[in-house]
Amino acid sequence: MDLKVDPEEMDPNHEPPSLEVFAHSSTLHGISHIFTYERFCVKRCLWLLFFLGSLTFLLYVCVDRIHFYLEYPHVTKLDEITTPTMTFPAVTFCNLNAFRFSSVTRNDLYHAGELLALLNQRYEIRDVHLVEESVLESLKAKTDFHNFKPRPFNMREFYDRTGHDISEMLLACHFHGTECRPEDFKALLWPRLSSSLLLAQPQVTAKDAMPSSQAGVGNVCTVVFKVKQHIHTLDICSNVF
């Protein structure tokens, strides 16, 4: 089979096409105006600036998209669904006043006095000058460990016994016109030694749960507590909790 070859390609002395010829035969937009036979320097410089600017912008977009892809982006889609009724929520009320000092015994102070920031390592009252005079005498009597025989101590039992009773604090509780009772609260103990009250009904079924059909002031949970400021533990010593 015979192949037709141009004489120019057979000539070893034939020079390759010039840069101007390559630019005019290229389909890359703008390059033909940069490498041209014309001698208008200003026009060629403008086309060179436009070409380099476009090329720089193209490279910037490519690098930015590659960097964005390597970050493994994702989009979280949420579907909003309206419901005619809302089940009674679990509302937690935390009490920083973790225990009642009037219910603390000598055995409690012996085992947990340092933990409660009331005693030091030598079983002595911490910062006596900061303790209220109304409780100082009672605290001195409870910290008299002479001939005292300690009994077993349990922190859970301590908070159940010395914590504030919801039946004494709850003055009123309503949710969507339904009255809440102390039995609807469940006492919790958090790791930071602060007692909390969880208002919920974990044992009831969906049929017995208290629903709400709409939002508004008259359809929310309204709770009134008695503060019991006269036995506020935080006032005993300024650095307690």
Automatic annotation (TrEMBL):
The keyword Transport applies. GO terms for cellular component: plasma membrane. It comes from the Eukaryota. Keywords: Disulfide bond, Ion channel, Ion transport, Membrane, Sodium, Sodium channel, Sodium transport, Transmembrane, Transmembrane helix, Transport. InterPro entries: ENaC. It is found in: Membrane. This is Uncharacterized protein. The lineage of its organism: Eukaryota, Metazoa, Chordata, Craniata, Vertebrata.
